[in-house]
Amino acid sequence: MKSTPSYIKLYEEGKLKERVEKAYSMLESCNVCPHSCKVNRLKGEKGFCKTAENVKVASFFPHRGEEFPIRGYYGSGTIFISYCNMRCVYCQNYDISHLGEGKEYTPEEIAGIMLYLQEEGCHNINWVTPSHVVPQLLKALYIAVKKGLKIPIVYNTSSYDNPETVELLYGIVDIYLPDIKYLNGDFARKYSKVKNYPEVAKQVIKMMFNQVGNLKTDERGIAYRGVLVRHLVLPNGISTTKEVLDFLYTVSPHIYVNIMAQYHPYYKACDYPELCRRITDEEYRQAVEYARTLGLNLVID
Q1: What is the reported pTM?
Q2: What does the Swiss-Prot or TrEMBL cofactor note state (predicted)?
């Protein structure tokens, strides 16, 4: 089965350009993400995300380390966006997300990157940490579609997204790859430096699922549409895994979930003794067993 990306139809109907224009208007008094800093990024002003109009990109390449439905046989065309709208103290990519390593690119240049990744045979274009730069990415997409882009978009997010922004992605993004960190507001403030994370994450994950449904794959097992949720197990119950899985069950009893065991105490994690160790085999086993008890679809690589 070969599915045409949803954005092709929007482009042909003339609606993709309208989405780009609406998204760009959000940059004038920025409310692209939940921080709603109200700075004019089109005039070079920067808020929490430290990004004005041009987007910093740390790297781009065919990523073969994602889950199989995302990476497939030829890789996911990953674009690592610099900076982030969260400040997780344990971030494994802190040099990119916190320190902003990378180079500035215009939307026209990002369009060129997407076309290059398609030419390399990638199964999709994977926007990593896109929540603060959606308008620019949509503009890049519009330019790339005019030049022949025709593979699905993966929206790879920490789920701290403005619901209004996610609404603009309806009919554009075919594959959502949201990460849900915890469902405890105190933990979100302490370890990720954001407010209202549980409420925001729950709302936008429900929206994403309503837009594209459960994960769908072709005869090769490669995703072409749907939601795959990631959840990183943290030590000492900080990831509130049971609550997270209970919530995901309410979204869909058979939602696809990758329960991740890769936590290391990176960056500033050891400033917090409760985060200053890897998880145990038992902590991970309990998480997986509870997901299986609920009947969720586990994606394990």
Answers
A1: 0.97
A2: Binds 1 [4Fe-4S] cluster. The cluster is coordinated with 3 cysteines and an exchangeable S-adenosyl-L-methionine.
